[in-house]
Amino acid sequence: MIRIERLDHLVLTVADVDRTITFYTEVLGMEPVVFGGGRRALRFGPHKINLHAAGHEIDPKAARPTAGSADLCLVSAVPIEEVIAHLGASGVAIEVGPAPRTGALGEMTSVYFRDPDNNLIEVSTY
């Protein structure tokens, strides 16, 4: 039987890779990386989000890659109040929250907002 240990990376299909990198680095503090002959990604902790430009995806790819179809939950290292203040200072509108939720490790508090492709981004604290 297979036993999955952790998530290594995921892929976002985006309309504009540069715009996405700017948002995720400036708003969420991720680190831009280049790998594999010029491919681009975002790194945070031991995880990575690979970026595919819509219409120019890398094979193999999702059956129907579409910009704006993701729903991600990210865990913050700072209190939710600091997340809210930073989002406000960055001009990012919170759609929902702070609200109680249940994550992989139990009870957490979350805020929801959109990235430039309208992906739903949830930032949570335990």
TrEMBL record:
UniProt keyword list: Dioxygenase, Lyase, Oxidoreductase
GO molecular function, one term: dioxygenase activity
SUPFAM superfamilies named among the record's database cross-references: Glyoxalase/Bleomycin resistance protein/Dihydroxybiphenyl dioxygenase (SSF54593)
Residue intervals of the VOC domain: 6-126
TM segment ranges: none
Keyword hit for Lyase: yes
Protein name (database record): Catechol 2,3-dioxygenase-like lactoylglutathione lyase family enzyme
Record-linked Pfam families: Glyoxalase
Keyword Cell membrane belongs to the record: no
